[in-house]
Write a structure and sequence with these properties.
single chain; alpha/beta; TIM Barrel; Sulfite Reductase Hemoprotein, domain 1; 2 domains; 8-stranded parallel beta sheet; 12 helices; 15 strands
Length: 360
């Protein structure tokens, strides 16, 4: 059983963070924020997949102004990602950002930070203090060295220094992130930081890579931390369509039995008996179930002979080969259909089960 680290609680829009609230899944758009239509379309896809917090880049005042139209049209809280320019942080909050991510040390001095904090107080907007291995102050690097798995102290000290700057301005609605592209530095840093503060923590491995490398690195680092009760929000960072980040995030939470959203998909790794395009079939089913909410167990198997028996615990599954497909439930054959209609009929059965469970 995972025992969650106890933290203070903050609210980002209608999402409560920390203090034993559910670990929240976050992503970031990769559209041009100034392109409102494209950004809204991507957020809609992310929300359908289960994204609970969305962060947007705010590179200029035009992007900050666009936040108003975006915020008014979406159902999940909007976080503005700010670098260097305090004016953008203030403008983002004026235009509806429900949280901001900043590195206080790169905003240009205490006066500019004070203006940002004053705006956060005025608008009731929490601040994420985010520091990365590449943004640590020079004096801390000189004192502690570059952060490593054995010595992440400069990363931790940078975060706590910036938190204290904001606390000195009478503001405490914060969460903290300390990201590294190295898995073990990420793990060690968050483990130590979690013992030094009770602020909620946002987890992530920065610059993790593409689908495979990014999934592996993020799952290892975040899986270790979440299994130890560390982490209140997180993002799986992938050089990929951000919807993929949400898919990986919820599979990670499911594997740790922290949260469950939608069906669990099981599929065989294929072998010489496979006589069906299982890769394509499994991918299409996986994409479909991402929009479902009922916690079913769904199986996609390559062998019609052994598939139902190997996946007998599945609520529903498919297998096929040689032009014939079967749909089975709890190990028993439910329907036999032609292979070319298998996917269409199976998705219809999935939707029927979803509708029935939602009504009950």
């Amino acid at each position: 059983m995972i025992i969650r680290r106890q933290t203070r609680e903050i609210c980002i829009g209608n999402v409560r963070i920390g203090n034993n609230q559910p670990v929240a899944v976050q992503s970031m758009t990769n559209t041009d924020t100034r392109d409102v239509a494209a950004t809204l379309a991507q957020i809609e896809r992310l929300a359908a997949a289960g994204c609970e917090l969305i962060r947007l880049a705010v590179p200029d005042l035009e992007a900050a102004s666009a936040l108003r139209a975006i915020r008014d049209a979406i159902s999940i809280p909007l976080i503005a990602d700010i670098h260097f320019d305090s004016r953008l942080a203030v403008a983002a909050m004026e235009n509806g950002a429900q949280a901001i991510r900043i590195n206080p040390g790169n905003l240009g001095g205490s006066a500019k930070l004070a203006r940002v904090v004053a705006a956060a107080k005025l608008h009731g907007v929490p601040i994420r203090v985010g520091v990365n291995s590449g943004s640590i102050e020079k004096d801390l690097l000189k004192t502690y060295g570059y952060p490593t798995a054995e010595n992440p102290q400069s990363l931790i000290e940078s975060a706590l220094r910036n938190v204290r700057l904001i606390e000195d301005l009478g503001f405490h609605e914060m969460k903290i992130s300390i990201k590294s592209s190295d898995v073990l530095t990420t793990v060690g840093g968050y483990q130590k930081l979690s013992k030094l503060t009770d602020y909620p923590l946002h987890l992530g491995v920065t610059e993790a890579g593409g689908l495979i490398a990014g999934t592996v690195k993020s799952s290892v680092a975040l899986g270790i931390l979440l299994s130890q009760g560390i982490g209140d929000t997180f993002r799986i960072s992938l050089t990929r369509d951000p919807v993929e980040e949400i898919r990986v995030a919820f599979e990670l939470l499911r594997s740790l039995k922290i949260r469950e959203r939608g069906p669990e998909l099981i599929s065989c790794p294929t072998c010489g008996r496979t006589r069906i395009d299982l890769f394509s079939l499994a991918e299409k089913v996986e994409q479909y179930v991402q929009t479902m909410k009922t916690p079913l167990k769904v199986a996609v198997m390559g062998c019609a002979v052994n598939g139902p028996g190997e996946a007998r615990e599945a609520d529903i599954g498919i297998a096929g080969g040689h032009g014939v497909g079967i749909i089975f439930k709890k190990g028993e054959i439910y329907k036999k259909i032609s292979e070319d209609q298998l996917l269409e009929v199976f998705l219809a059965e999935l939707q029927k089960m979803e509708d029935e469970r939602q009504k009950s």
